[in-house]
Design goal:
It is a single chain. The chain starts with 17 loop residues before the first strand and ends with a strand. A hairpin with a 2-residue loop joins strand 8 and strand 9. The protein is an all-beta fold.
Length: 106
């Protein structure tokens, strides 16, 4: 349309979350109490907001979707797991994968 006023068009330039550094291997004894912040391993370039989720967390642990804090008391028996944390923004996501080693209490 030749009469369209383009001066009123706003273009959003949201950037997806980015990984920042690498989450190191976590080693915890069976039955341990966990409070591990993952948010420092992600950045939000335009402050659009991030929600957090995780796959393959050890039994007994959960992640706070607003803060990225993994917490709880381990009920997982000794093993090694590959855990993925996902930071999701309005236009994309970033992931961090790390190992979580659960050691046997002797």
């Amino acid at each position: 349309n030749p009469n369209t006023d383009l001066s009123a068009i706003t273009v959003s330039s949201d950037s997806p979350p980015q990984s920042s550094g690498s989450i190191p291997t976590q080693t915890t004894a069976e039955g341990g109490t966990i409070s591990f912040a993952t948010s420092s391993y992600f950045t939000d370039p335009d402050s659009a907001g991030i929600t957090y989720s995780a796959t393959n967390l050890p039994a007994g642990l959960s992640i706070n979707s607003s803060t990225g804090l993994i917490s709880g008391t381990l009920t997982q028996t000794s093993t090694s797991l590959s855990v993925t944390v996902i930071a999701t923004g309005p236009t994309g996501f970033a992931t961090q994968e790390f190992s979580w080693v659960i050691t046997q209490v002797v």
